[in-house]
User: Fold this.
Amino acid sequence: MASAVAHEEVHEHTHYTTTGLDNRKVAIWAFIGSECMLFMSLISTYLVYKGKSIVGPFPHEAWTSPDGHVFKPILNIPVTTQSTFVLLMSSLVMVLALAAVENRGKPGYAGTLLGNSKLWLAATAALGATFLGYQAFEFTSFVHEGLTIHTNLFGSSFFTLTGFHGAHVTAGVLWLLTLLSIDIKRGLTPKDALLVDICALYWHFVDVVWIAIFTLVYLIK
Amino acid sequence: MNDHAPHADHAHEHPDWKQYKWVALWLTLITVVEVWIYYTSFKDSPYFIPVLLVLSATKFAIVVLMYMHLKYDHKLFKALFTGPLIIAVCTLLALYALLGHQAVPQ
Amino acid sequence: MATTAATPTFAPSTTYGQTGIWSWITTVDHKRIGALYLYTALFFFMFGGLEAGMIRWQLAQPNQHIVSAELYNQLFTMHGTTMIFLAVMPLSAAFFNFLIPLQIGARDVAFPRLNAFSYWIYVLGGIFMTLPIFFNSAPNGGWFGYAPLTTLPFASGLNIDFWVMGLQILGISSLAAAFNFITTIINMRAPGMTLMRMPVFTWMSFVVQFLLVLAFPVITIALVFLLFDRFFGTNFYEIAAGADPLLWQHLFWVFGHPEVYILILPAFGLVSEILPTFSRKPLFGYNVVIYSGMMIGFLGFGVWAHHMFAVGMGATADTVFALTTMLIGIPTGVKIFNWIATMWGGQIRFAAPMKFAIGLIALFTIGGISGVMHSSPPADLQQTDTYFVVAHFHYVLFGGSIMGIFGGIYFYFPKITGRYMSEKLGTWHFWSTFIAMNLTFFPMHFSGMLGMPRRIYTYDAGQGWDTFNLISSVGTLLLILATLIFVFNFLTSRKNGAVAPGDAWGAGTLEWSIPSPPPDYNFAEIPVVTSRYPLWDLKHPERTAGIAHSAPDPMTITDAHATPVHEETGHKTAAELGIPMPFNTVKPAIAALAIVMMFGGLLFMHTGKFAVAMTITIGSACLFVGTLYAWLTSPLE
Assistant:
């Protein structure tokens, strides 16, 4: 696309900004602000309904149903600790991916593992997908053990909250895979760093929401 | 002379790979402590929840300040994040105070 | 594909003054999108007015049965929903769209295609929510949709489904627009325009965008819970499962209270532009007006439970919210004084916009007084759920928002179309509206105090309410006639109005420095601003002698085209000026359609056609993802 090249040169001179920051970065932070309120509403509802389910299963206590069936506490802390760790590590590799793109070609990055943006993008997506795998495992085992989204207040609020979070992770994984495919096709240069940065901000925020959920849902009774 | 994103963003210091490693290490450590105390008798102490909240808030802050490099970025982003965060936290506390009564006895 | 991830390329615009329906469907120009919002919102305003007309016809006399109770429920629900979400908010959006870039000296908003998307999803969502009334299936749970009343056991049928999904769709529109305007206002101001030099309308709009960003996610979740309860059998509002009957109310009003500030602040902004112009002096106490606006925005998140004083939250909660509510009356009241002081000592010109602005001051004050009366829980126990509240909110919403918006329309009509509206018809419109509005809503204070409940479809004679209701209904009829005068004026002035220059009223802000109507690129040369009233600095410096001025900070001038403030009268095309214009595109409209179809598909689950539902919903989701991908990978300009 020869015309595209010519256009890029002509394009450079416009688009003054008041702050010197890119519009898209400003917009993503505004979006993250709205997500704070979104997840606050979900988390508040979960907390408000904690301990108020009339029937079990319950998160941290066993329950015997009226017909004698014994349900053990539903939440599995050891397994969820692993998925939490996976998500935390995904933030690390995300940061490395951004650094690799920003510093492409610079000494210390060119030709090294550190500078391999495809590796780090793929790793982030893979860890994200692993987290989703854990979630899928968790959801199906809960259903198997008798907790569904309609069972009680706990089921409804738990699956909706973690489901929304999982949907956000899924969107993030798709975003990462898109960036990865662009990196494979034509390579991401420092000029593209902003796009990776925006994806990274979204990704870290999703991680941070999970930090809150892990504590408030899993660790606090 | 025109402003384009990469040019303006790099006017600040950047944490480097070594700092990121430390961040990851701290996050892991704090998580280990959180899960550890969950399994000890400390979980029955009245300090359990406050300690857990402080630990999680620390993880939250580390990720936001370092990974999302809010610490190093233009102060506009700090404002864009902190405002909503304050309103979200205050609303959550208010809703809990208003609706979170004693648990229904099982 | 080589350029997809780098900054988009552009080509200079080849046409100026596009015509034809397709050019409107594919437009990404903020001025055209603003015009689309304006026309659509005015249509819905009239539709909502007709719904009000039917309500008042039914209530004109005791024990009438012009409409059934069931239809009455749909009428008052849709009147409220239409007026709030399909009329007033989009009317404000019309002004955000048209005005913000012009006031800050920008050529468009930050994300023009997202802007178009916001409009299309609004119009499609509005149709989605409005059509059902023709099938007797309109939402019927009140505009506030209290659960558990709106859960499936109590509200079977599709009515509430339309409401839940319709609001979700409209929420997407508002949120997308909010991200757009926040970015625009932060990042696209002309050199020298610091935040404290922005026009007040832009400032109030800025606050509103943050209110939108923070409040809409909360109602989104409340609606998600209701949607899930109705479609997927969850228990969020299921009392038998232990749900809290107040959960909906709290979540709704955490959104609902900031929502009312979303409704009023743009009108406050418009009035703050009109008053200085027709008093020929700067706004009195600009800083205070701005800080008050910010305070209202912030405090607005701390008062919501004053809508719930009668539910039994307990003395502590009642007291806290009573105090915060009284507190928020202060910044609001402060603005009234600033406006009065702006007029004081000015050379007043009572043009039509000025009449409406002054009308707002008078009528909003009345509404504010009844509002303060509500802030006391003991007093509110008598007032709540009576017509006293209906009086209050119509004084602030009609007497406030609508009067301000009408004023804004008269004021900005010349800028948008290049012609003035008829001043004579405007005067008739103003006085008939002012009188009719008071005739309609003032009696409601009395019928409310005498105990007339809200939302009843008939009432028995002899309770002392009859005369007041009759007067209100007569007033409503007059209001409809008054509005018709306005519609006539609006439509005929487009062709027959006196031609207006760029500086149609002798105002002081940047939008008046370009031709009426503006060229597609807005400013041929982005001006450098040195005070709050850049055009007065140029043309009436005696008016701005007393306000702060500064030499522009050389660090902020990075665009080679920036020049001192000047009036632009030439009509060169963007191509001649070398200004890149964005491409027209239909993708935002298609993306909007896909989303509406996704929600619409779900509806079929409640008619027993599960397979149809899944096909439509999943198919539309794929269409959405595909369109989004095409949108994100194609260049803007």
About this structure: The longest helix of chain B spans residues 75-99. The CA atoms of residues 12 and 99 of chain B lie 45 Å apart. Confidence is low (pLDDT under 50) at residues 1-12 of chain B.
